[in-house]
């Protein structure tokens, strides 16, 4: 089997290898010899080119673009890059599979990270989030380390890299921040120390639009001509072997001329395929629109459904690829995506194929594309937030987003909210054209909307394919940055990130594939599963049964770092808000996020093995040094938001200590914008934080309650600490108790659909007023000198009574005063009553939680 000295690393493994551009036959032969030398088995592809999935435990492939990827996903067979073989041999044991997945949605799968001069808690956040997206953590710098996260070049890890001349990139933490905001991996160039471009060059300086390999052959859903194959020689078109054994049906909605049809027929025939007019017997169904009985029948029966652009791409490259991989390789929806029909969209900062692709994608989504920008445009799609169009969009209150908004709306078959942060994030020195075309279509949404249910007459093969697709859906991550990703299982629980019951495993295996599941084996017997390798259904990360002999410390480590992506990402999202002085980085500020992680780990430890079972497991696996038991945290009983709290001013260490004390008492201090039970304030104030959370109906307590908790380490009755501030109640003309009751009735809809404009140069900035207005359901817009007409002119309707009011918040600078008349004219043309008011009107209305108006708030009187 293997060489002497414990070299049988792959003794329990059976492999099959998938050839591609990056994995040639020569490399496959070399890898196969290494696998056999170290105890493994290699199963070649079948005569028809399919993979022997029933006989293998691992698939070696540098791409997920092979026809049986979905079936392998449903069977939970790990698909790993060829690098996994060499990494396993270097370690002398099988490596983890997550960092070696070929799925491009795991954006850090090639990253081996080591953190330098980063605070411990921030380091944990970056490492956890990176590992959740396929990366690896290295405490020490080695030749395998690819990235060092650092703030300067003075740390010993950085100096070591320079001395040893390792090929390792020294990056600012800003890079990780921007990658996770987008859910895409952008180029590290602008973030590289010692002279990072993001700190040296102005964000508005020119960036050349990059090219993207992800748009190859996919810029249009209806190509104009048949391209020349990439490997053709002068005048010769190579035989397209990708069609071997395939029956292809061309739908009538393609409107193909006889000459082109004959060319395609010759290509199919020469490559071993054939053309058919029977949707029942075809393997591939090619059409233009997602409609019609043939499209539905082919989709429900698990046929490969694609459009002409996909077919041309296969002819060009002679390699199979999934039509769901590129948005414009799948039939388009007739009429577009709901919600886009009345949208008028233009594009900025994209060039070349990226611009053509976006034009076609916008049109396919059902919107109107315009080359130039006018006031009647509804959206601007831009790769950066610096251009003349971007300036005009801000002035004209036109929604501005990057291409991810259009792509993900199209992929999910419904318009996504443009307020999602990743759609409006623009890294300062990156043109987002470099990550265009990386979004996959959501097959579950396609099935739900365009071909729901099961086929009327389904063959056994069709039923099996349908079951495979259902099980593949169960095996994938449902949401988050890694949405749609599947990581195969390994039987060694130290590395296994998919847990479920043996009963479900046996039931699903027998039901779908018609063969019995493998018998139970000890968890420590194999590092990867025994053959055959089939389906494990059920949810991720169920606690393993107490009969498992796996080491608790190894299990906790694997679970805390790898098994639950959502907490990792949530933690990083909170940590990244703690900005550097320059506004780019995720450092400084609030510390609540790490408490969430600790609480998550504590909940896991409650369901762990008993002490006796743990000791038994430790002795069976390997001896490990004793570790102190992780202290448990009480459940969160109260979530509070603080405003105007002076105890922690200029004392960060005291703040961190006090927050921990409160958490130990079941009180979590959360950030503004999150759900809370109590708002803590020293007195009645009109801060953004106070007004936003008052609008949610939060009970307002005196800050003396927090002081009492910290001083006595007891939690007194909150009802005895309700904020009472007679002086400010008289000053603002309200009763706080009444305002809270009104807010609880209003449920954040006090100003529901009320249009409120704000001058762009208003004192204290527009963002504060926007937060307050939108917390109460208002429609908030910025009004500037270049703003066009955003209220459409209408004729008054006698039956509707008095016109609705529209407000403009302003101060009395000369620049703002010039806008008052222009705003009033616009409102009256739209049959609305203009009210140019001081910002105090909004603050008082929200403080009272009652809509009212007095002429004293009119700007001409208020500032006179």
From TrEMBL:
Gene3D superfamilies: BRCT domain. Transmembrane segments: none annotated. Residues 543-552 have a biased composition (Polar residues). Residues 204-238, 531-559, 577-630 are annotated as: Disordered. CDD domains: BRCT_BRC1_like_rpt2 (cd18436), BRCT_BRC1_like_rpt3 (cd18437), BRCT_BRC1_like_rpt4 (cd18438), BRCT_BRC1_like_rpt5 (cd17743), BRCT_BRC1_like_rpt6 (cd18439). Residues 5-102, 103-193, 340-412, 638-723 form the BRCT domain. GO terms for cellular component: Cul8-RING ubiquitin ligase complex; nucleus. InterPro entries: BRCT_dom, BRCT_dom_sf, CellCycle_DNARepair_Reg. GO terms for biological process: DNA double-strand break attachment to nuclear envelope; double-strand break repair. Residues 591-602 have a biased composition (Basic and acidic residues). This is Uu.00g126490.m01.CDS01. It comes from Anthostomella pinea.
């Amino acid at each position: 089997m293997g060489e002497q000295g414990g070299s049988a690393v792959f003794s329990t493994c059976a492999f099959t290898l998938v050839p591609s551009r990056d994995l040639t036959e020569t490399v496959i032969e070399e890898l196969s010899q290494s696998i056999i030398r170290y105890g493994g088995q290699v199963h070649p592809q079948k005569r028809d080119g399919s993979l022997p999935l029933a006989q293998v435990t691992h698939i070696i492939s540098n791409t997920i673009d092979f026809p049986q990827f979905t079936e392998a996903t449903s069977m939970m067979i790990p698909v790993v890059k060829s690098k996994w073989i060499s990494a396993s041999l270097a370690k002398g044991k099988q490596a983890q599979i997550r960092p070696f997945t070929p799925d491009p949605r795991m954006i850090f799968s090639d990253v081996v990270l080591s953190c330098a001069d980063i605070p411990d808690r921030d380091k944990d956040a970056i490492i956890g989030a990176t590992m959740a997206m396929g990366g690896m953590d290295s405490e020490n710098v080695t030749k395998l380390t690819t990235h060092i996260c650092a703030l300067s070049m003075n740390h010993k890890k950085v100096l070591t890299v320079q001395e040893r001349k390792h090929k390792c990139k020294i990056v600012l933490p800003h890079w990780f921040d921007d990658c996770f905001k987008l859910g895409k991996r952008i180029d590290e160039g602008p973030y590289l120390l010692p002279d990072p471009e993001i700190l040296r060059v102005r964000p508005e300086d020119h960036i050349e639009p990059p090219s993207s390999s992800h748009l190859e052959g996919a810029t249009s859903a209806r190509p104009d001509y048949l391209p020349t194959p990439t490997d053709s020689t002068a005048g010769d078109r190579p035989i397209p072997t990708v069609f071997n054994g395939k029956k292809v049906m061309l739908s009538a909605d393609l409107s193909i001329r006889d000459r082109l049809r004959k060319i395609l027929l010759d290509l199919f025939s020469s490559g071993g395929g054939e053309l058919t007019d029977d949707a029942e017997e075809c393997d591939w169904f090619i059409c233009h629109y997602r409609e019609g009985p043939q499209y539905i029948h082919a989709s429900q029966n698990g046929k490969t459904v694609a459009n002409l652009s996909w077919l041309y791409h296969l002819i060009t490259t002679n390699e199979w690829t999934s039509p769901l991989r590129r948005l414009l390789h799948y039939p388009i929806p007739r009429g577009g995506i709901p919600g886009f029909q009345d949208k008028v969209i233009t594009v900025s900062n994209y060039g070349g194929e990226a611009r053509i692709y976006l034009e076609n994608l916008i049109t396919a989504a059902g919107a109107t594309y315009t080359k130039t920008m006018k006031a009647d445009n509804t959206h601007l799609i831009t790769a950066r937030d610096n251009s003349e169009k971007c300036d005009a969009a801000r002035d004209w209150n036109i929604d501005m987003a990057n291409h991810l908004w259009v792509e993900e709306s199209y992929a999910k078959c419904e318009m996504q909210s443009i307020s999602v942060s990743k759609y409006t994030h623009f890294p300062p020195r990156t043109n987002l054209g470099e990550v265009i075309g990386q979004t996959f279509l959501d097959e579950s949404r396609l099935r739900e909307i365009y071909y729901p249910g099961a086929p009327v007459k389904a063959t056994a093969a069709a039923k099996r394919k349908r079951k495979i697709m259902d099980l593949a859906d169960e095996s994938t991550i449902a949401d988050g940055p890694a949405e749609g990703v599947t990581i195969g299982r390994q039987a060694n629980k130290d590395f296994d990130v998919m847990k479920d019951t043996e009963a479900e495993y046996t039931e699903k295996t027998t039901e779908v594939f018609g063969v019995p599941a493998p018998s139970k084996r000890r968890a420590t017997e194999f590092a990867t599963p025994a053959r055959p390798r089939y389906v494990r259904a059920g949810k991720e990360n169920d606690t393993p049964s107490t009969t498992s002999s796996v080491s608790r410390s190894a299990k906790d480590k694997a679970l805390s770092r790898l098994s639950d992506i959502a907490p990792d990402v949530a933690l990083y999202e909170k940590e990244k808000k703690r900005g550097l002085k320059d506004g780019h980085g995720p450092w400084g500020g609030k510390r609540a996020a790490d408490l969430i992680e600790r609480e998550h780990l504590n909940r896991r430890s409650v369901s762990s093995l008993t002490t006796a079972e743990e000791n038994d497991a430790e002795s069976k696996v390997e001896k490990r040094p004793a570790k102190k038991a992780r202290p448990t945290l009480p459940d969160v009983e109260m979530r509070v938001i603080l405003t105007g709290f002076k105890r922690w001013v200029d004392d960060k260490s005291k703040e961190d200590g006090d927050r921990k004390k409160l958490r130990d008492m079941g009180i979590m201090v959360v950030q503004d914008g999150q759900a809370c039970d109590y708002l803590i304030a020293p007195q009645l104030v009109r801060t953004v934080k106070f007004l936003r959370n008052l609008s949610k109906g939060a009970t307002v307590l005196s800050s003396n309650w927090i002081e009492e908790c910290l001083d006595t380490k007891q939690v007194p009755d909150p009802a005895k600490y309700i904020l009472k501030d007679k002086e400010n109640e008289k000053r603002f003309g309200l009763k706080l108790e009444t305002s809270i009751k009104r807010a609880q009735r209003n449920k954040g809809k006090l100003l529901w659909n009320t249009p409120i404009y704000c001058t762009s140069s208003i004192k204290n900035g527009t963002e504060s007023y926007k937060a307050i207005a939108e917390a109460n359901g208002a429609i908030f817009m910025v009004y500037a000198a270049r703003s066009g007409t955003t209220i459409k002119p209408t004729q008054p309707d006698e039956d509707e009574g008095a016109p609705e009011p529209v407000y403009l918040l302003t101060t009395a600078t000369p620049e703002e005063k010039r806008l008052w008349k222009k705003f009033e004219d616009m409102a009256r043309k739209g049959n609305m009553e203009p009210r140019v008011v001081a910002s105090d009107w909004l603050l008082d209305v929200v403080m009272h939680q009652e809509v009212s108006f007095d002429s004293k708030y009119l700007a001409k009187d208020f500032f006179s």
